[in-house]
Design a protein that fits this description.
102 residues; mainly alpha; elongated
Length: 102
């Protein structure tokens, strides 16, 4: 990957992460609340949580951004990027749950 293309990828990933955390508060809180319930019950699975975050939150935001930008989801925000963003969100939430911030 060229340096310019790599920079675009990093920017798009960062943009997707920020939008996922700030753009859609209702979905963000719903997904977090759902995962918190699993954590409190002791049935939390980090891999399943990442997939759930990708499907329910990150992909929704990526589709919204694609509609605004007039681009296709698979090119602007490929699955690997969306999973990477979901991974970062899950790591942050899991850390908060372990510290008792939920």
């Amino acid at each position: 990957m060229t340096d310019a293309r790599h920079g675009e990828f990093e920017w798009a990933e960062h943009n997707l992460l920020l939008c996922s955390e700030n753009n859609d508060g209702e979905t963000y809180l719903l997904v977090r609340r759902t995962l918190t319930k699993f954590y409190k019950k002791g049935t939390y699975d980090r891999q399943r949580a990442k997939q759930y975050i990708e499907r329910q939150l990150v992909c929704k935001i990526a589709r919204m951004l694609c509609a605004d930008e007039g681009t296709e989801l698979r090119y602007a925000y490929p699955k690997t990027m969306r999973l990477s963003v979901a991974d970062k969100i899950e790591e942050s939430w899991f850390s908060d749950m372990q510290l008792g911030y939920v």
